[in-house]
């Protein structure tokens, strides 16, 4: 999404003052804040009704934990980007959020500028993590890939990717953002997104988490 004004954002947090402040800051930065919610079930209902591009989500919610909200909404709409905004920097919380489908994780100690930049980058498809957490997540991808699920006996042959799709996938596996990949390959950000979407379709994967795991299983991060 090249124009920030077109990005629809929904803010989910059980603390009204914090929720309102975040929504106000994002609206002031030019985002279209289409809804807010204060608990898990309400978040699921409202997100399904307004279909935001980015969900800014707290993990500690009444009624339904944030990771479950994320899992349900991303499962129903893989195009949804989820940026977790949490007070917890615990590694277990970060990994659980990523496994549930979140594409980013920011601590609540972040500045307003860091938050607005994180939402913009999340909308563009980039993984966004508070410094120090990106390496943790990539390490977890590698751990998961070291114990892949056994293939079914009748599993069809893997689809063929183009050379450029494979090149983009290799850089995704190395943890580069879409912007960095575009600069490395001297192509546009939109072209990188198109290659990723085509690759997801060919491999029948749903999000960047699954894509990175697949790439690491194939050893592309070591090439």
TrEMBL record:
Start and end residues of each Response regulatory domain: 8-123
* UniProt xrefs under PROSITE patterns: HTH_LUXR_1, HTH_LUXR_2, RESPONSE_REGULATORY
Specify whether Repressor is a keyword of the entry: no
Record keywords: DNA-binding, Phosphoprotein
Q: Domain of life here? A: Bacteria
Protein name in UniProt: Response regulator transcription factor
Presence of the UniProt keyword Cytoplasm in the record: no
- 4-aspartylphosphate PTM sites in chain numbering: 58
Identify the residues that the record assigns to the HTH luxR-type domain, covering every copy: 154-219
């Amino acid at each position: 999404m090249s124009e920030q004004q077109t990005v629809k954002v929904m803010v989910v947090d059980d603390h009204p003052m914090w929720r309102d402040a975040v929504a106000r800051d994002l609206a002031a930065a030019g985002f279209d804040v289409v809804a807010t919610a204060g608990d898990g079930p309400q978040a699921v209902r409202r997100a399904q009704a307004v279909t935001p591009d980015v969900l800014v989500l707290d993990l500690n919610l009444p009624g339904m934990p944030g990771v479950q909200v994320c899992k349900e909404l991303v499962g129903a709409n893989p195009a949804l980007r989820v940026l977790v905004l949490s007070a917890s920097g615990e590694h277990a919380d970060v990994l659980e959020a990523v496994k549930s489908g979140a594409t980013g994780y920011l601590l609540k100690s972040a500045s307003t500028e860091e938050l607005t930049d994180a939402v913009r980058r999340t909308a563009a498809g980039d993984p966004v993590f508070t410094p120090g957490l990106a390496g943790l997540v990539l390490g977890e991808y590698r751990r998961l890939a070291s114990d892949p699920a056994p293939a079914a006996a009748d599993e069809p042959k893997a689809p063929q990717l183009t050379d450029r799709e494979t090149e983009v996938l290799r850089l995704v596996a190395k943890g580069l953002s879409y912007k960095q990949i575009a600069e490395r390959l001297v192509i546009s950000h939109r072209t990188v997104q198109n290659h990723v979407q085509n690759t997801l379709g060919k491999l029948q994967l749903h999000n960047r988490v699954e894509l990175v795991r697949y790439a690491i299983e194939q050893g592309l991060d070591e090439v």
